[in-house]
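[audit] Reproducing an earlier prediction to check determinism. Same input, same settings, fresh worker. If the C-alpha cells differ from the archived copy the diff job will pick it up downstream; this log only records the rerun itself.
[audit] input (236 residues):
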Amino acid sequence: ARCEHSGMMKLFLVALVALARPVTPVRTQRVVLLRHGRTEMNEYLSKVPYNHPDFEDPMLFDTRLTALGERQADAAARNLEGLGCDFELIVSSPLKRSLETARRAFVHFPDVPIVVHPGARERQWHASDLGRERGVLEAEFGGEPFDWSLLPERGSWGYFPEELPNRGPVPEETEAAFVERLMDFTEWVRARPEQIIAVSTHWGVIFALVGRTVRNCQFVDTESAKLFPGAHLLGE
C-alpha cells in the first residue's frame, strides 16, 4: 500500500507541474532518441548492480565510452543511416558519453549541426552523471559540428568541478526537478523549426519521456507530440 501511495503521489506531482504550464502547440515532428554506448559505469553496474549490498558509487566522474561502447556507436551509425532520415538537427547531452556517441553515430550526417543541450543530460544519481564545464568540452570535442551556445561560457550547467575531492555522496536530482527539466527540454524541441530531429541522450531521459527501457545505442523512433515527461512513473 505504501508503494502504491508513493506512486500516486509522484503522478500527482507530475500532473501539478504540467497543469501549471501553458500548452505548447504541437505539430508533427519526427524525433529519434538514441541512448549512448556502453560506459565504464555500465561495466561497473554489470558486476555490482544498484540493489547489491556492496554497491557504492565508484566515482567515475563524467563516465566515458568503453571500447565496446565505441563499437556500438559505430554500429548505430549504420542503423541510423538505414532509417533513411534526412536529419535536420542533432541534439546531444553535454555528458561525454553522449557527445562521443553523437560524434560516432551521426558520422553520416556531417553537415547537420549538433546542438549541445543541458536539458538532455541524465538525471543526477552518481558521479558518472556530473559533467564538465563548457571550456573543457570545447577543448576536447572542438567546434563544428558541435554548437555549444546553450551552455554558459563559465559556471555550472550541472557539472562537477574537477578540483573537488573524489568522494561522495553526490546529491541526487529530485524527481520533481528532473521532470520539470524534461518539460523545458520537450517544449524547446517542439518549438524548433526542424521536422526531423535526433537526440543523443541517456537511459533515464528516454525512460522518462516515452516510458521505455532501451539498451546501449538502441534508439526510439517517435514524434515530439508523443513525448511525455514523467512517462516513467506510469511504468512500461
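[audit] rerun output stored. Observation attached for the diff report: The mean pLDDT is 88.
[audit] end
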